[in-house]
Amino acid sequence: MRLPKPNNIQAEKYVAGMSFFKKRLVRTKLSANESALGPSPKAKREYLKVSKSFARYPDSSGTHLRESLGNKFKLDKNRIILGAGSDQIFELICKAYLKKGDEVIVPKYSFIIYRIYSKMSGAKVIYSKENNFTVSVKEILKKVSSKTKVVFLANPNNPTGTYITKKDLLFLRKKLRSNILLVVDDAYFEYVKQKDYSSALKLFLNFKNVVMTRTFSKIYGLAGLRVGWGYGSKEIIDVLNKIKPPFNVNKAALFAASAAVKDSAWLNKEIKHVNNWNVKMFYEFKKMKIETNRSYSNFLLVNFNRVKINSSRVFKLLAKAGILVRKMDVYGIKNSLRITIGKSEENKKLISKMKRILNV
Which H or E run includes 251? Predict the structure, then answer.
């Protein structure tokens, strides 16, 4: 029997952080940069409340959530687009603005989904070098050509945890041609308190050629509900809405996210917990002679060259002890692991096990 022939898709498959090891569910999952404390109690209550109407379709335009976001961040709700995770916003951007022969610039070490959706749209992905695991504006600008259509970057960056200053980010937009779309992923912005940093939303509020994205999968603890959003000029958002699937964000996600964004007290509790443990874990790794950069997110990238042990061995020993972290092979970062900051007891368990592995 002859089957339909698929298109020649060049993109690789996205490989998510593991939840299972040797067919067993691992309880201490520090592999996917999920929330340490989980969702707001208000979001949980709203989920249960709206569950009574699950037999009905959600509002396809997500008006309730867009209004909540508009009120929270003082935004025009008509310039907000919702997605089943912020990755759907990236997919829509690639579908709307890329075709075969176009070029997309992404930093060498960056969220893999940028390059996957770019390649699926037929574009060629160009990688810019980084400077000590920090996105380099100078290197991005070196890669710009007449074929460049989109530049993707996250700030802070995943998987490195470093950030670009607001001065450098503004310089990048100034030097890029006006017809190159700059997409800035603000997935981890809440954790950065440095004065030389600014979220893309604040920095590019009234720019017509920048799209900013945010997610409810990280700090808000709603990864399982799949909801994210983007903000841009009315012209760009109108284009994206034309190709957005109907009912793309489910009813539970819309209402739980709306409740979560209003719960500032819970958000601040999560930020304080993560930032305190970020510093603690940084110094614990330093004492173990494990190399790591200062991270401004809810995870740390660690390298094992100095302690002369293979990261794959560390991964397996941690997994056998019931702790899952993220391998960095797929990102091209050798002998390294990315570790999400979890609950206090999870972090203590990880540090204790790491010390035993390294005999320190």
Answer: helix 251-262
Q: Are strands 124-128 and 103-107 parallel, antiparallel or unpaired?
A: parallel
Residue with tokens 């939303």: 201
The whole-angstrom separation of Cα 154 and Cα 9 is: 25
In tens, the pLDDT along 7-44 reads: 777 767 766 665 566 556 678 999 999 999 999 999 99
Residues 6+ apart with CB under 8 A from 57: 247, 251
Enumerate the β-bridge partners of residue 303: 291, 336
DSSP designation for 102? -
Task: For the chain, list residues with pLDDT below 70.
Answer: 5-6, 11, 14-25
Show the domains of the chain with their CATH numbers: 20-30+265-358 (3.90.1150.10), 41-263 (3.40.640.10)
Compute the distance between CA of residue 196 and CA of residue 192 in angstroms, rounded to an integer.
Answer: 10
At what angle are helices 251-262 and 41-50 packed, to 10 degrees? 150
Tell me how long the chain is. 360
CA 252 to chain centre: 21
- 140 by DSSP, 3-state: which? helix
Cβ contacts of 15 within 8 Å, gap of 6 or more: 112, 330
The per-residue pLDDT for 23 is 59
